[in-house]
From TrEMBL:
Residues 373-382 have a biased composition (Basic and acidic residues). Its EC number is 3.4.24.-. Zn(2+) binds at H181, H185, H191. Pfam families: Astacin (PF01400), ShK (PF01549). One of its GO terms (molecular function) is metalloendopeptidase activity. Residues 354-366 have a biased composition (Polar residues). Residues 354-382 are annotated as: Disordered. Its cofactor is Zn(2+). One of its GO terms (biological process) is proteolysis. CDD domains: ZnMc_astacin_like. Binds 1 zinc ion per subunit. This is Metalloendopeptidase. Keywords: Disulfide bond, Glycoprotein, Hydrolase, Metal-binding, Metalloprotease, Protease, Signal, Zinc, Zymogen.
Amino acid sequence: MAETLKKDLYFDKTIPDHETFLNANDFINAKILRDSIELGDDINEVIDDSAMYNKNRFEGDIVNNGLTSRSIKSFMGEQNFTKTIGVMRNAVRQTYLKWSDGRIPYTISSQYSSFSRSKIAEAIEEYRKLTCIDFAPKSAADVDYIHIVPDDGCYSLVGRVGGKQPVSLGDGCIQKGIIIHELMHSVGFFHEQSRSDRDEYINIKWENVEAGLQDQFEKYDLKMIDHLDTKYDYGSVMHYASTAFSKNGKITIEPRKKGVEIGQRVGFSPLDLYKINKLYNCPQLVKPPTDEISEEVIETTTTKFKKISKKPIRQEVEVDSNEEVIDNSIVDEDKENIENSDKYNKRFSKKKGSISSGEVNISGIDTESGEDDNNHNESNERMSKLTKLKTKLCKDKRRDCKFLAENNHCQIKISKKFMKDNCSKSCGLCKMIKESVDYEDDNNCKDSRSWCGKWADSGMCQQAMFREYMKEKCPKSCDFC
């Protein structure tokens, strides 16, 4: 793996900066990196976020033109926009600063190494799995987009500002948590310690702050920042570290709550996710996470799904209680050489018939003439449900499948397995069922939200934090009924 993913060269600025996109290989490499970390391989260096604290930038890593602690009131709408648009919600509630439908077109510099591209892919995959934010390859029609480039340190603009806007991931920035942090600025969020109520939760040690940088610790009242009805989040990936802008290496931010840590750069906190999904009207929990949960960090390196309904869900089949069902668990295709393994779908075996990776084998079902009518009807019913499930499984699991397929990743040897598991529909790999097979939808099985299909396709039905919400609002799209 060391030969494939070099970490000693993050980018090469002697190469012209062309706009490219992440491809299937980048996401495959991201998974290899993730698996290696799980196995204890020391691929990642010790996290160091010092590159995020540039004294010449607003709050260290924000580069909106002319934005300072004195001009932020105008930027955030306190003066001209409050009456017509409303206050900010922890960042950008103004329509012109939010990305339409949560879609953020992007390009990535050709100067990045394979290792850096895989780390950026890993961070973008976190957004795809846990939010409705869609970092989509820029199309010819997109005028506003972000360009990820290895410029001077780490920085971003807050929200959608128009045109080509840079997200710099330079020296010291190729770490998943830092990438997530900078992209969250692009989504529309400022730093956590800028909240108006921050003094109830932290103490600023002004005596340790570098001279002239006191304005990097400004806070902004509720006319400018709405906290989205959430508690202060010590665990936010958007929180300053304890020694930010220190002149002597001593702490500049001291949590009032004993034993908590601030400035983590591992990944999203539950409250980070809640706020993103609330800002963009994505599916979410009815209530925000509690204080105890908010100090945790979402770990998404492995995800296990459990059965929550007696009726078929995306990767389950309904069976009689006296039939034997074997849960073979999720098998990692990169660790086990099993052709039909699928990280998104569990493999279930029936005593007489099986379903694996969307393919149905019904050769073992007994249809001899001696079978009574009731058993025959039950068998036909099971076959109908299996066929319906097969159709449901024959769909793309990623929003960029069409783009990847158009760029021939279905045929490239190194990415063929990845595309089979994630983009079977776009690659034309599904064995379509006969048109004569028909079923009747349950009249009570209806979605109550127009966007249910989109969020089901993005994986929200299986994510623990959204499951109850999706079960209530989108039972049909999620196959809960």
